[in-house]
Automatic annotation (TrEMBL):
<comment type="similarity">
    <text>Belongs to the myo-inositol 1-phosphate synthase family.</text>
</comment>
<protein>
    <submittedName>
        <fullName>Inositol-3-phosphate synthase</fullName>
    </submittedName>
</protein>
<feature type="domain" description="Myo-inositol-1-phosphate synthase GAPDH-like">
    <location>
        <begin position="177"/>
        <end position="281"/>
    </location>
</feature>
<dbReference type="InterPro" id="IPR002587">
    <property type="entry name" value="Myo-inos-1-P_Synthase"/>
</dbReference>
<dbReference type="Pfam" id="PF01658">
    <property type="entry name" value="Inos-1-P_synth"/>
</dbReference>
<dbReference type="InterPro" id="IPR052199">
    <property type="entry name" value="MIPS"/>
</dbReference>
<dbReference type="InterPro" id="IPR036291">
    <property type="entry name" value="NAD(P)-bd_dom_sf"/>
</dbReference>
<dbReference type="InterPro" id="IPR013021">
    <property type="entry name" value="Myo-inos-1-P_Synthase_GAPDH"/>
</dbReference>
<dbReference type="Pfam" id="PF07994">
    <property type="entry name" value="NAD_binding_5"/>
</dbReference>
Length: 342
């Protein structure tokens, strides 16, 4: 499956090193992989054919070098190299410059990419829209890792659906991150009839994404609230701080502290304190690997717009129908893809 990528950051280092890493293991043993095969596409069937960045220490270099360039700090897994190792091309720096959008669209067409993965820093909505435009012009399916809207742009989304181009977005839901853990605990309280009186979620880390979120956390915070509202009806008593602090020595590790306070029978207090520690960009790559295969399968079937199977893998998925229906439909569609080993 041919993949194009914008933004050679930690997520991409985790994704591509991981694909090669799993290729070196026994195919039966894939620890940490939810779906070794999805829609007939194996984890190891994916190759990068075009990559875009702007950083002077990444552009013009082979992807296998660029993915280790600063400030990337995902661990080195000791893989020998990448089977498909394109050079990093200069991408879109000025989203108002149509010639840059056209150049990216042309590289996408020439590369034969089936899926375009958008993985830039959060907080660049015009740039996100410009890359989305280029992918739609080139007829390539889109996966958006970030909370800056691409699938969430109504006109672009409608055009993609009309042209049978899949649009998977927005904002990936980490493999086992603070949103899903926090949301699950809050929904447990709701289900058991404990009254929530207050809750917070603080995230700290030491990678470029964290540094950036301290300044551009707006879309991220609302996207994280949307993720919680997939699980509970009301998040008024919940404070979410996507980036509470940059702690350099943590590098690409992330620590989330969650606190939940409520009241039970006779107004007596209940309190939970949860600490979650993860490798931040493994947490992204473990879901990107499914999102890009969902997009590729939809593209191969000529199904444009939002593939329902991606619903629970995103923080801000497109709402197609009644939410109560879409969640179980999404789960069923994902299981069906996982069962397809053709
Ligand atoms: P990163 O900062 O490590 O990488 C971003 C890359 O984009 C860098 O290489 C940078 O040079 C490049 N870039 C900047 N502007 C560009 C442009 N105009 N064109 C092309 N490239 C450009 O970030 P990351 O950790 O890889 O995360 C990527 C995105 O995924 C972020 O927006 C992040 O918020 C989002 N996300 C991550 C997680 C997770 O890691 N668990 C979860 C959900 C969402
Ligand atoms: Na990351």
């Amino acid at each position: 499956m041919k993949l194009a990528i914008a933004g050679v950051g930690n997520n991409i280092s985790a994704l591509l090193q991981g694909i090669t890493y799993y290729g070196m293991l026994d195919a039966e043993m894939m620890p940490g992989v939810a779906h070794p095969v999805l829609g007939g596409i194996a984890v190891t069937d994916i190759e990068a054919v075009a990559v875009f960045d702007l950083a002077p220490n990444k552009v013009g270099r082979k992807l296998s070098d660029a993915m280790f360039a600063e400030p990337n700090n995902y661990p080195k897994l000791g893989i020998p190299g990448l089977d498909s190792d394109p050079e990093v091309t200069f991408g879109i720096a000025d989203p108002s410059d149509q010639s840059q959008i056209d150049a990216v669209a042309q590289v996408l067409r020439d590369s034969g990419a089936e899926v375009f993965l958008y993985s830039l820093p959060t907080g660049l909505p015009e740039v996100a829209a410009a890359y989305g435009r280029a992918a739609v012009d080139a007829g390539v399916a889109v996966v958006n890792c970030t909370p800056d809207p691409i699938a969430g742009l109504p006109e672009l989304f409608a055009e993609a659906r009309e042209k049978n181009i899949p649009m998977v977005g927005d904002d990936l839901q980490s493999h086992i991150g603070s949103s899903i853990v926090h949301g699950t605990v809050l929904s447990l309280l709701e289900e058991r009839g404990i009254t929530l009186t207050g809750s917070y979620q603080l995230n700290i880390g030491g990678n470029a994404d964290f540094k950036n979120l301290r300044e551009h956390g707006g879309n991220k915070e609302s996207s994280k609230h949307r993720a919680l509202r997939q699980k509970v009806s009301n998040t008024d008593a919940v404070t979410v701080i996507p980036s509470a602090g940059f702690v350099g020595h943590l590098e690409d590790r992330k620590i989330a502290h969650m606190s939940v306070e409520g009241r039970g029978w006779a107004d007596m207090p209940v309190r939970l304190e949860i600490s979650l520690q993860v490798q931040d960009s493994s947490n992204a790559a473990g879901v990107i690997i499914d999102l890009i295969r969902i997009a590729a399968v939809a593209a191969r079937r000529g199904e444009g717009g939002f593939p329902v199977a991606a619903t629970q893998l995103l923080k801000s998925p497109q709402k197609l129908t009644d939410w109560q229906e879409q969640v179980p439909n999404g789960r069923a569609a994902l299981s069906a893809l996982a069962a397809d080993h053709a």
